[in-house]
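Note to self: keep these together.
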Amino acid sequence: MVSSIDVVVDHRDAIIPVVLNIFVDVYPSEERRNQEIIEESMQFVKMIPASNEAILSLKSYSLPQNCSICMEKFHDDLKEDDSDDVKVSTMACGHIFHYNCIVQWLQTSHVCPLCRYAMPT
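Structure:
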């Protein structure tokens, strides 16, 4: 929105004309403005694929199917919604357990139940 105001000041026989130009950007919401900024910046972004060397250097892991403490599955392949995500934890030795299982275990013993890696006491 652009507005122009002409003001005349009368000060002891001196007339000084003043012209004010006021520029105001008006946006309906901050969220909309943020979206506009993102869209403007995306015009300059060009998607470039990673090199084959970088892709081949990715490490891949096989996770165990069951927690070694409670012997329950980490995930249910038949479950369709992810609303009940399973919380897992990895020890320094790399073994993976249900978070609650390994916490309960470590409150009793300071060693990994699989390889006997000693946690600080």
